[in-house]
Amino acid sequence: MKIWRWVLVGLVCTAFVLRIGAVELGRRQPTERISGSAGDVLEDDPVGRLKVFVYELPSKYNKKILQKDSRCLTHMFAAEIFMHRFLLSSPVRTLNPEEADWFYTPVYTTCDLTPNGLPLPFKSPRMMRSAIQLISSNWPYWNRTEGADHFFVVPHDFGACFHYQEEKAIERGILTLLQRATLVQTFGQRNHVCLKEGSITVPPYAPPQKMQTHLIPEKTPRSIFVYFRGLFYDVGNDPEGGYYARYISIFACKLVFAFLRGARAAVWENFKDNPLFDISTEHPTTYYEDMQRAVFCLCPLGWAPWSPRLVEAVIFGCIPVIIADDIVLPFADAIPWEEIGVFVDEKDVPNLDTILTSIPPEVILRKQRLLANPSMKQAMLFPQPAQPGDAFHQVLNGLARKLPHDRSIYLKPGEKILNWTAGPVGDLKPW
């Protein structure tokens, strides 16, 4: 009886693909421009709208760290490195700090890697404090605002909370000295202590050249309905042996899947045997090619709400299925995520098959046309060299939209707001 049930499901899957095929669902879709203000914002040119002064720090804060471990250039946190390189040659850079709108401090806080390539942020707070002490001692600009006209790139799991475990990140909170600055970070979750108001949420770094080499012919049909490769239960991603689904018991999965990081476990427990779902922990060499053959790509939260899969899905035209309650997505004022993706509440994961199969083909086709828009893909990448409309320019657009600064950010002579001695004792040690 069980065999016949899955045969029936397979027939339903085939019928669904054929139904979409009747309206020419393949990889080759005409593009569609984003309508309204979002499209205008995505295509903004920041040049001429702001000037950025780049502090010249001793190389121990950036270049020497990279020289010790070149893997930092390819991991998902590499935006901090490439943003620095971009700004050094960008037309928005000014060598005259008196005319600057923004000040940038190039500190590579995620380039301390374990042997298996995982960043350890334990030194990051001391490193950042040291850099801020340096710029506040050698230039007058930090002291005018205590960082309110400065921005920092902090792309780690929980941004400037500088810890890979959420409970400890929450306990730490955002580094005190960064609480007036604008933070450019991959972490984004509403009502979370590690996301301060005014932060700019960016995509994680994904190597553009690597993805380019895996493109397949445009006419290749999308024969996979739902695709996901990744961990469902993890003991390796955390140097201290944590779990993605640390609150989930396999036997109680359907009862408690809504807990904070149980979305992946719920996907596996509910759909591991469903022929509509091509999901596995294995990461094949055809991973990028498979995404280009899929209609939907799952982007469930893991250790943090964000994931590189979101970037990969957009680049390869696979409709992202975002399973991460309260997530703040990259460049949300420019990219119409509701129009290009599908949002599923964590509590609704057991109904994922019903939710996706009930989406009308014409809605799927429109999402694919929007995803085919080159400007959409460009905004998710940090290419070398930079290109108009890419993620570098979207960051600058975000900074430009914050101008002019309110006069209230400037402190009175002798006024102090930040507490330089606040925070864990370990953070106060010299770096």
- The share of residues in helices is 25-40%
Q: List the uncertain runs.
A: 1-15, 21-26, 239-260
Number of distinct helices: 17
Kindly provide the radius of gyration, computed on alpha-carbon positions and rounded to a whole number of angstroms. Answer: 23 Å
Overall pLDDT level: 87
Q: Choose one word for the global shape.
A: globular
The major sheet is characterized as: 5 strands, parallel
List the strand order in the largest sheet. 1-2-3-4-5
Query: How many β strands by DSSP?
Result: 10
What proportion of the residues form beta strands (DSSP E)?
5-15%
Provide the fold topology.
Blueprint: H1 2-21, H2 36-42, E1 52-54, H3 63-68, H4 79-89, E2 102-104, H5 124-138, H6 141-145, E3 150-153, H7 166-172, E4 182-185, E5 200-201, H8 208-212, E6 224-229, H9 253-256, H10 263-271, E7 277-280, H11 287-292, E8 294-300, H12 308-315, E9 319-323, H13 337-340, E10 342-343, H14 352-357, H15 361-371, H16 374-378, H17 391-400
Parallel strand pairs: 1-2, 2-3, 3-4, 4-5, 6-7, 6-8, 8-9, 9-10
Structure description:
The protein is an alpha/beta fold and 431 residues long. It is 32% helix and 9% strand. Strands 1-2-3-4-5 form a 5-stranded parallel sheet. The protein has a 5-stranded parallel sheet with strand order 7-6-8-9-10. Strand 9, helix 13 and strand 10 form a beta-alpha-beta unit. The longest helix has 20 residues.
